[in-house]
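Record 1 of the preview.
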Amino acid sequence: MIKSPALRLLKGHTEHQRSVPFTHRFKYGLGLIDIDIDRLDEAGSASTFFSIDRSNLFSFNRRDHGARENTSLRPWAEAEFRKADIHVDGEIRLVTFPRHAFYKFAPISLWLGHDRDGALKGILYEVNNTFGETHVYAAATPDVSRNAHATDKVFHVSPFFDVSGAYQFTLKQNDETLHLIVATMQDQTQTHVATISAKAQPATSANLLSLALRKPFSSLGVTAAIHWQALKLWLKGAKYHSKPKQSSVRTTIATPRRAASKTAPGRETIA
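->
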């Protein structure tokens, strides 16, 4: 088995489309990193423009994920996988937005847990909102050819959607590409869909510098786009939903869709 690099760059775009009560669609470019959480020192030496736990043009800070502590990320990730009865004894990779200069916001990050032979055993969909809250949807991957999962929606993300309905996650990824679909379902009707499509590149200084020049606001731009689109939705007349108090349950178990109904509910576990 060929060892993957400790750090890769993913360049692509995200697209969102709302279907009810009116159509609203937008698309913008993005840059992600794919990092081996056990080889952070190696990842930090990949480029002059990338660092671990310190400021740089781009960086990765352990406090931005998991337990939000300056400690190893693996114990937290393994504990989350175990809640879904997923045993991970191999590589764990984290696909997320890098910290750009002083700022980072990652609407969603993907923790990909493998066994010793390199097979993908599970996914943690780590979802964040702009209020500083986080929720994890954990999913086993028994059918590596179709990483498709369904779960109840239990976490407040947008003030223009209430916390009801279900999510359908679909992830297709390999060494060259990543394609993620997150569909929001209400009474078996798709009300919103968000996608990320990206291609892998080596995390060289040239490629990181190119990302900074082509998308100078990177992570900051993600937050700016969220608020800009929220304003557009409000002007169109979208109903505003106040943020509810976050539940003490911070992990929900998603069900593989091949063995579930179209909107099969997940089960929650106490974090």
